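User: I've been trying to design a sequence by hand for this structure and keep getting stuck. Would you show me what you'd pick, starting by listing the structure so we're on the same page?

Assistant: Good idea, let's start from the same input. This is the structure you sent:
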């Protein structure tokens, strides 16, 4: 039988890349981390870590076990949350990760609704882009991840349930008073890219329009991006939620057909979900 505490240690080492950093995250001493790893190797009969210069790295067996341990720990933590909610061991907490423009639009309304209807339920909120939000979800560090994906985005990991919230169209953002037209009309312009997922979608849409964009700037700050566009430093593609969160008076927007991102609430495992998670999901739907 594998020890869950030792699995948590292995996951921390895999995530942080060193015994010292893992010990700091877990509030253990470094010798204690080393001891747990040694005991886990004895339990499994496999070499899990090896020295690499001044640090360590996981072996192939260690990486395999760490990847499986993330799923195991997430399921155990979710079960503990659900059981605690059912038997009333504590007042309750639900943890949400969401991307910036979701936090800038509908997420605050969901948080306010929770505070009104369930004052004993504490909401912990983390702002992060979808790939990191999903990593937090799989590792059991959040309960719900509000993410977005495009039609051309690679499928998400198995074991995650996706609850559709809304479809968010994309807009070409150009300087006010500048030339109109679609993507191809700006093939020679400088382009401003956003986060990795948005950048990939921008490249794909421009390729479909018959050109490769010249990327001059990269920023996921929608205020800075629109300020650059307004100053004539380039054009960009932004989703509707970003424009709802902030709209610069010096830009013009044109909806791009066929460029829509799909916003989902991602939850680990299949329903029924813990009561606190169900309550948060209901609040998110009602806030749209």
């Amino acid at each position: 039988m594998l020890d869950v505490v030792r699995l948590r240690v292995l996951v921390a080492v895999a995530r942080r890349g060193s015994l010292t950093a893992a010990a700091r995250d877990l509030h253990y001493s470094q010798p204690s981390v080393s001891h747990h790893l040694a005991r886990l190797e004895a339990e499994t009969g496999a070499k899990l870590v090896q020295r690499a210069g001044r640090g360590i790295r996981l072996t192939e067996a260690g990486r395999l076990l760490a990847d499986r341990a993330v799923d195991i720990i997430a399921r155990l933590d979710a079960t503990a949350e659900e059981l605690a909610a059912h038997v009333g061991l504590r007042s309750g907490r639900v943890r949400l990760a969401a991307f910036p423009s979701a936090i800038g639009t509908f997420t605050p309304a969901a948080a306010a609704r929770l505070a009104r209807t369930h004052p004993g339920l504490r909401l912990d909120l983390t702002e992060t882009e979808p790939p990191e939000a999903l990593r937090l979800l799989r590792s059991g560090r959040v309960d719900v991840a509000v993410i977005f994906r495009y039609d051309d985005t690679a499928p998400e990991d198995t074991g995650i349930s996706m609850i559709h919230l809304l479809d968010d169209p994309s807009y070409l953002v150009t300087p006010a008073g500048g030339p109109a037209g679609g993507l191809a009309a700006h093939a020679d312009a400088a382009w401003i890219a956003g986060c990795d997922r948005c950048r990939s979608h921008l490249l794909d849409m421009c390729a479909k329009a018959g050109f490769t964009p010249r990327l001059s700037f990269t920023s996921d700050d929608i205020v800075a991006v629109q300020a650059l566009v307004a100053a004539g430093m380039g054009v960009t593609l932004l989703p509707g939620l970003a424009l709802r969160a902030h709209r610069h008076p010096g830009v013009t927007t044109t909806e791009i057909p066929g460029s829509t991102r799909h916003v989902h609430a991602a939850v680990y495992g299949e329903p029924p979900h813990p009561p606190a998670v169900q309550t948060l999901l209901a609040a998110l739907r009602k806030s749209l």
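That's my pick for every position. To get oriented when you compare it with your attempt: The mean pLDDT is 89. The CA atoms of residues 100 and 198 lie 13 Å apart.
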